[in-house]
Every structure is written in C-alpha cells, then in structure tokens.
Specification:
This protein is α/β, with parallel strands linked by helices. It has two domains: 5-123 and 318-341, NAD(P)-binding Rossmann-like Domain (Rossmann fold), CATH 3.40.50.720; 127-313, Dihydrodipicolinate Reductase, domain 2 (2-Layer Sandwich), CATH 3.30.360.10. 31% of the residues lie in helices and 22% in strands. The protein is built from nine helices and 15 strands. The protein has helices at 14-25, 71-83, 125-141, 159-173, 207-220, 254-262, 281-284, 315-331, 336-341, and strands spanning 5-9, 32-37, 45-46, 49-50, 52-53, 64-67, 87-90, 102-103, 119-121, 143-152, 226-233, 240-248, 267-269, 290-297, 304-311. It has a seven-stranded parallel β-sheet with strand order 5-2-1-6-7-9-8, sandwiched between helices. Strands 11-10-12-15-14-13 form a six-stranded mixed β-sheet. Helix 1 crosses helix 8 (315-331) and helix 3 packs parallel to helix 5 (207-220). The protein is globular and about 60 Å long. The mean pLDDT is 96.
C-alpha cells in the first residue's frame, strides 16, 4: 500500500483544487489520482486529470479518498468509499465530533490515526492553525483557559465569496454603488462582520465559534478546557489571522515561549514588532507553516500570554493537513487495514 490509488472528492472547489496541486507539489506516491465532482463538472480537465462524477460504479478500487465537498456529500458518500475498502479523510464538519471518528492535526495528535474506523476528520481551519501553536504550550506548561478571536478571510467561504469581495471593492474604489451582498449578510468590502457561519436558535455563539470550542477540546484531549471564541469575517482574500489569549497552568515567559515555538513542528516564529516584523496574511499565503508573533504577557492576568497567529486557510487549514494525514497513513501502514476489513 505504498502507492495507493487516490480519489479527490470535491476536486473543483477551492480546497479540492489545492489538494490536487499539493499532491503534485509534495510528490505524493499515488499509483493513480482520480478527481470527482458534480455531474456538471464531469469531463473537465484539472492538472491533466479528467474529472469524474460521483456514481456507484465509479468509486470502487480506491485505497484513499480525500473529501472536500461539504457535509451532505460526505454523509452520503464517505461510508460508501469505506465499504469498498478506502480510508476517507474528510474536510467537512460532518464527522468531526463523532466519538468514533479520529479528528486529527498532523503535528498535534497523529496517534489518533492508529484507531481510525475508516473515516478521519480534518478539523476546522481556524481551530487547526491555533492548535499547531497551542499543543507545544500545553505539553510544556499546561493550558487553563483560552480566549480565541479570529479574523477570517473570504476564501474560507469559497470562490463566490472571494468574487463578492472583489466586485464590491472594485465598485467602491471606482465611486460606484457596490453590488448587494449575496454570500454574506452584509457588504464585506471595507467592512468587518462579527459573524462566521450561522446562529442556531437560542444560541448567541455562531456555528463556527462552537466548532472552535468543541474541536479544540477533542483534539487536545481536554474535555473540560475553558475556552471561548469570537470569529469575525474580514475583507481579506486568503489567510486567517487570530489573537490567542492563553492562561497557562505553570508560568511561561514570552522569551521561553518564543524558544519553545521556534522548535515546534510546522511553526515559524516572526516576532520583532519594533522592526515591523510579525505574522501577516500577505506573507503567510501559499505557505504550509503556521506563523506566530506578538508574543507578550497579558499584564491584566497572571500566567497569561497573548499571541498573534496567521495561517493559509486553504493550505494548512484544509488541504495540507489532509495530505499530511494521508502521508502518515502510508508511513504507519494504516491503509491496507481498511481494505482487509472491507
């Protein structure tokens, strides 16, 4: 199983196309890669590959399936791929909080892969990049409480949202009335929306904020972790930025925190604020690492640090982590087990 046959489901979307590009960039050892999308995209060429439509007769013989097609598609088709012997790595929120499904960040809890049941969930993009930074701190000194604030780009909503930002910005900059919002509840250009995803009846937190809270607890293995979240949408094309206020169990100085994170996998420390050097969305775009800076004490609370974290939400926040999981499945020989069970 060192050269698996791979399906990419949702291949024409922003994350799906990034997955296809990264499979090539990382020289992923696939014997064959087959992109899948809706029937209207069937026959389209992507990176020299022909897109197939999802159909029962098309999905047999795969060892691995990378999904980024939304929860409804994952709910219907992920079990079908598993029944035919594939391991599914799913980027939707469909399976994340299922107690039987591993929810994995490659640098944080790869050991969770050992007990996978055929479906592995890729976490929420904003939670994922924060956890790459938070895990080393938890291991070193423990974490008591997190105040999480995110400033999320439009690419996290999809290609139509990015186009909405472009169209509205162009109109405003040329002195015209911007097009009415269709993707977001309000104009996104030159604005900040304190809402990412939706509000459910009776809940003052958005579904995105609930995901950050619940998934962070599950991945870190801290079900009682005190964590609160506020997620905002900002007029940025790509990369999510986050402010993390972290209360630790034992004291951790800013200097020791910088040293700790400098040696952490998948993390780059950029922290010379006096020289104007700190993580920026414009510089994190196209990178697989998570950037952290503005590391300083919270002078209002003991054993508490503030950090500024930035990551490419299409890459590490989605596609890169899914492919890192796939690489770990090969390295740990965890693909053939699914086929034997099927």
């Amino acid at each position: 199983m060192s050269r698996p046959r791979v399906a990419v489901v949702g291949a024409t979307g922003a994350v799906g196309t990034t997955m296809l590009r990264l499979l090539r960039e990382r020289s992923f050892p696939a014997s064959e890669i087959v992109p899948f999308a809706s029937a209207r995209s069937a026959g389209r060429e992507l990176y020299g590959l022909t897109v197939h439509s999802l159909a029962e007769e098309e999905i047999g013989g795969f060892d691995l399936a990378l999904f980024s097609a939304g929860s409804s598609v994952s709910l219907e088709w992920a079990p079908k791929f598993v029944d035919r012997g594939a391991v599914v790595v799913d980027n939707s929120s469909c399976w994340r909080m299922d107690p039987e499904v591993a929810l994995v960040v490659a640098e944080v809890n790869p050991e969770a892969l050992e007990s996978h049941n055929g479906i592995i969930a890729n976490p929420n993009c904003s939670a994922m990049q924060a956890l790459v930074v938070l895990k080393p701190i938890e291991d070193a000194v423990g974490i008591e409480r997190i105040v999480f604030s995110s400033y999320q780009s439009t690419s996290g909503t999809g290609a139509r949202a990015v186009q909405e930002l472009r169209d509205q910005s162009q109109a405003i900059l040329h002195g015209s009335e911007p097009p009415a919002p269709e993707i977001y509840p309000h104009r996104i250009a030159f604005n900040v929306l304190p809402q990412v995803e939706t509000f459910k009846d009776g809940d003052d937190y958005t579904t995105e904020e609930r995901k950050v809270i619940a998934e962070s607890r599950k991945i870190l293995g801290l079900p009682e972790l005190r964590i609160t979240a506020t997620c905002a949408r900002v007029p940025v094309l790509n990369c999510h930025s986050e402010s993390l206020n972290v209360e630790t169990r034992q004291d951790l100085s800013p200097q020791d925190c910088r040293a700790l994170l400098t040696g952490a996998p998948g993390v780059i420390v950029v922290d010379e604020p006096a020289a104007g050097r700190y993580p920026l969305a414009s510089e994190a775009a196209g990178r697989d690492e998570v950037f952290v800076g503005r590391i300083r004490r919270d002078e209002s609370n003991p054993r508490t640090l503030n950090l500024w974290v930035v990551g490419d939400n299409l890459r590490k926040g989605a596609a890169t982590n899914a492919i890192q999981i796939a690489e770990l499945l090969i390295e740990r020989r965890l693909l053939g087990r699914a086929r034997a069970a099927a």
